[in-house]
């Protein structure tokens, strides 16, 4: 009887051990192999995110250390984007014309500082160096030749050439034309004529918004502004082909100009200061007042 009891107890123990083993195996499979077990996945994701944070922090610390060890290595600053209205100011090189009155001065040599009128042959006669071709040349080219020729007579000559009085009527044309500059015209001349003198429009010109800045009778009032529409002229409206006047400033823009006064002050005036020698520009504007 005792043996039977011991045998039954042994079977029970073996059954219990087997049941626990199966339960443990099932739990192991559930935790490590069951794809629907969200709790175990969440733990894995947390571990991964934690490792990524650690690696990111280590990378930042390494970069900071390298920056301290190599202070000369600096990142390039980001360039700020700027908006440009029209194109950048073009340097206008005025070409001397026949009958222009030039003032040529040599620093500290008063005998070589004098006014000269460009003759019908396009030449001027300067002391010590004789005749020089002036017409068709820029002021800087004339300055360079006189400076070079005076070196035989003057130690380190410093020459300045300006236009004291322009021959004939002139207009300034800048912006989207092929050859911006100061142009001479004779008699009745319209806007299309002077645009042709400047080589015509570029492909980026806004033909419906050509700005003309014109001197008013009262200098204290500044300039008057006229907007010419070349498209209308090309479509047959000849009455829109405005006549130009001496010292008009004609600006061909890339975009439509709404506030012409503001545009003139903020863009055209700085462009002229960059483009033309200031004394030359002043003398050009002064012609009508002296007449």
Describe the protein in words.
By secondary structure, the protein is an alpha+beta fold. Among the domains are: 101-165, wza like fold; 169-290, Outer membrane lipoprotein wza domain like (Outer membrane lipoprotein wza fold like). The chain is built from seven helices and ten strands.
List the main descriptive attributes of the protein structure presented here.
291 residues, alpha+beta, wza like fold, Outer membrane lipoprotein wza fold like, three-stranded antiparallel beta sheet, disordered C terminus
- Cα separation of the termini: 149 Å
CATH C-level name of the domain at 169-290: Alpha Beta
Number of helices: 7
Classify the beta-strand content into a percent band.
15-25%
CATH superfamily of the domain at 169-290: Outer membrane lipoprotein wza domain like
Number of beta strands: 10
Mean pLDDT, to the nearest integer, reads 77
Widest β-sheet, arrangement of strands: 7-6-10-8-9
Question: From the helix content, strand content and strand pairing, which structural class follows?
Answer: alpha+beta
Low-pLDDT sequence parts: 73-89, 287-291
Topology pattern, helix = H, strand = E: HHEEEEHEEEHEEHEHH
Assembly state: single chain
Shape descriptor reads elongated
* CATH fold-level topology of the domain at 169-290: Outer membrane lipoprotein wza fold like
């Amino acid at each position: 009887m005792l043996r039977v009891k011991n045998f039954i107890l042994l079977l029970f123990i073996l059954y219990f051990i087997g049941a626990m083993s199966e339960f443990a195996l099932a739990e192991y499979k559930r935790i490590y192999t069951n794809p629907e077990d969200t709790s175990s996945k969440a733990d894995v994701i947390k571990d991964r995110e934690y490792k990524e944070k650690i690696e990111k922090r280590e990378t930042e610390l390494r970069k900071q250390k390298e920056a301290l060890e190599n202070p000369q290595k600096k990142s390039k600053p980001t360039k700020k984007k700027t908006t440009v209205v029209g194109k950048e100011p073009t340097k206008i090189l005025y070409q001397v014309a026949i009958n222009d009155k030039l003032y040529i001065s040599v620093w500290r040599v008063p005998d070589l500082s004098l006014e000269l009128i460009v003759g019908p042959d396009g030449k001027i006669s300067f002391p010590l160096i004789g005749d020089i071709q002036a017409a068709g040349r820029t002021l800087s080219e004339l300055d360079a030749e006189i400076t070079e020729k005076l070196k035989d007579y003057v130690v380190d000559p410093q020459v300045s050439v300006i236009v004291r009085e322009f021959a004939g009527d002139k207009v300034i044309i800048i912006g989207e034309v092929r050859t911006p500059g100061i142009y001479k015209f004779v008699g009745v001349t319209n806007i299309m004529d002077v645009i042709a003198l400047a080589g015509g429009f570029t492909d980026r010109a806004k033909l419906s918004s050509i700005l003309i800045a014109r001197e008013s009778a009262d200098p204290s009032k500044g300039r008057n502004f006229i907007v010419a529409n070349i498209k209308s002229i090309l479509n047959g409206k000849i009455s829109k082909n405005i006549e130009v006047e001496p010292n008009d400033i004609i600006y061909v823009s890339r975009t439509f100009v709404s506030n012409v006064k503001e545009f003139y002050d903020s863009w055209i005036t700085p462009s002229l200061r960059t483009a033309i020698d200031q004394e030359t520009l002043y003398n050009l504007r002064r012609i009508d007042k002296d007449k």
